[in-house]
Write a structure and sequence with these properties.
Elements: H1 2-9, H2 11-36, H3 43-53, H4 57-88, H5 96-127, H6 147-156, H7 158-185, H8 194-222, H9 226-237
Length: 250
């Protein structure tokens, strides 16, 4: 705790905290996208994956707490860095390079704030089902939570699908600059590979954002999964009543 406090007092310490917490979240974003893309394999694959994630509640909560701590530290120290930079800079910019670096920092702060809003909404949407409580009652034929139906129903709403799309564009911009800046912080962005690393960071960010974006886009543009949802809704309507009505003998 003391080491963290000491580290957080120096500029380079703050940079390292932002870089390390960013790396943890970046790895999560890669894994989460691969997991989510199973939606294209159909309800069986994604529902099975969802059930697998919930087999150990203790492990799930440890992962959630690690991610939440990383998110909190990342936002806090990034904001502290922005404040520190603002205090340290003279009012007038002498060089064009300084103006450009200010723009990219400002862009990081804006895309970061939108992403923070997105993550809060996303958790209320698909994890706690606070946005639509009916999602909690979606179960497939095997009694598992019907993640496939939830995702299709969720993205059938054009406002939600549109918001996810905007957030994914922000994700692309944030990761593209973030990965580049991460390489710089950890000293891997040498002059020799500067162009390649910038290009690599941009390509990775585009692939990730496109992977995520493909799901709401498929639901909105190709009506992906709507047939399955209609089937499940029908099955729900025609399901036998759990308690048969027995009329008392007269
Ligand atoms: C099309 C895009 C996305 C889809 C379809 C999607 C889908 C889901 C689903 C279904 C869950 C609930 C898992 C469960 O509890 O069964 C979830 C949880 C979560 N998602 Fe996403 N997600 C998307 C994008 C993102 C992005 C871009 C991020 C991060 C920037 C993200 C971060 C999270 C987090 C942190 C959780 C909570 C994990 C947990 O505690 O269980 N998601 N997502």
């Amino acid at each position: 705790m003391n080491a963290l406090a000491q580290l957080s007092r120096s500029s380079i310490g703050k940079k390292w905290i932002v870089a390390l917490t960013g790396l943890v979240m970046f790895l999560f974003v890669i894994g989460h996208m691969i997991g989510n893309l199973q939606v294209f394999l159909g309800p069986e694959a994604i529902n099975n994956y969802g059930a697998l994630l919930h087999t150990s509640p203790e492990l799930l909560w440890i992962i959630r707490l690690v991610l939440l701590s990383c998110l909190g530290l990342h936002v806090l120290f990034a904001l502290l860095m922005v404040i520190e930079n603002r205090k340290a800079r003279p009012v007038q910019y002498a060089k064009k390079a300084n103006v450009q670096s200010k723009l990219s920092t400002r862009l990081m702060a804006i895309t970061g704030m939108v992403l923070l809003g997105f993550v809060i909404f996303h958790l209320l949407h698909f994890t706690s089902h606070s946005v639509d409580a009916s999602y909690a009652g979606f179960h497939d034929e095997k009694g598992r939570h019907d993640v496939f139906r939830m995702v299709v129903v969720g993205f059938s709403n054009p406002v939600y699908a549109g918001f996810y799309a905007v957030a994914m564009v922000m994700l692309c911009s944030h990761l593209s600059h973030g990965a580049w800046s991460w390489l710089q912080t950890v000293g891997l962005r040498t002059k020799k590979v500067a162009d390649e690393s910038s290009r690599g960071a941009r390509i990775l960010a585009i692939v990730l954002a496109a992977g995520y974006l493909s799901i709401p886009a498929a639901v909105q543009l190709t009506k992906f999964g709507r047939g399955y949802v209609a089937e499940r809704e029908n099955a729900g309507q025609h399901a036998p009543s759990p308690e048969p009505q027995i009329s008392p003998a007269k």
